[in-house]
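Contributing new records

If you add data, match the layout below exactly. Sequence lines come first and carry their own label; structure lines follow with theirs. Keep one chain per record. Anything else will be rejected by the validation script.
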Amino acid sequence: MVRETSVAVPGADGPATATVSGTVDGPIGSRLGEIIVNILRIREMAMVVLILFTCVIMSIFSPYFLSLANFIAIARGFSMEGVVVVGMTMLLIAGKFDLSVGSVMALSGIATAWLMVKGHMAPPIAVLGGLAVGAAAGGVNGVVVTRIGVNPLIATLGMMAIARGCALGFTSGHPVINVPMSFAWIGQGSLAGMPVPILIMVVVVLVADVLLRRGRALRQLYYVGGSEKAAKLSGINVGRVVFLAFVASGLFAAMAGIISMARLTSGVPTAFVGVELRIIAACVIGGASLSGGEGTVAGALLGLIFMALVTNALTLFGVSIYWEGVVTGTILTTAVSLDMISRRRLRTS
């Protein structure tokens, strides 16, 4: 006999009631329903279910989907974006965001390539130079937002234009070529059959996720994003926390830009246009909120994986790549809308 069981589930604003239908009577069925509800309330688990569902659907409609080569190609494609989502997640948790990451990626890759090709510097020194460019861009964003009080939208839009203009002006719109092939291994090489960019992404994401969950210093991001006023009253230096989050965003964007440059063996000033929308959409889908105080790096990566699967589906079905922007924009708008509706219901319940 089918039975509906009301299950009390703890929530952020008090207990919520969920109805679970099952075919098992008694305490065992009730307990099973409670476990299922609690699992699905975890954003990461919900994303895993969505990703698995997408994989099942794709495997039915495309015989080429379930292949190791396809999965490696998908992972390689979003691996550098996977590095950038780390910094963006930190910012979103703190209640901010950065629209300049794509331009900073291009500028940092250009700077690193130029230092190696034109400046004849050793690759490690050139990489430090590229990372410094990214950190400087993030630092400027942080100062403009925290010290001057400019809205992050305007501040990072300005940095987007500045960084892209510097990349184009410095190179006259031409790529910086002839990067040493020994350096290209970072973007093209493999270890134990796994591409190096994917391995770098996995390490960065794992370390950042653990530190955000367990590190006392990074936990301050959640307090700041939840309520800046309460964080200040608790003795947290809100300005410093937000500033360092912007610096981290610039650093991770620079790291991704440098590795991508190594993969292409050239610095391309027009690269990574529009990548910031994909990054923000992935973070929001994975559980982060534009209002701050929520999100995990693991969830953001799962959101990125889902978007990569959608893009791969378009490719396998022969849909023009020019429609990718429509899909990304639709996913971003839908994710933000659902987040706002959910928050509105929590406030009125």
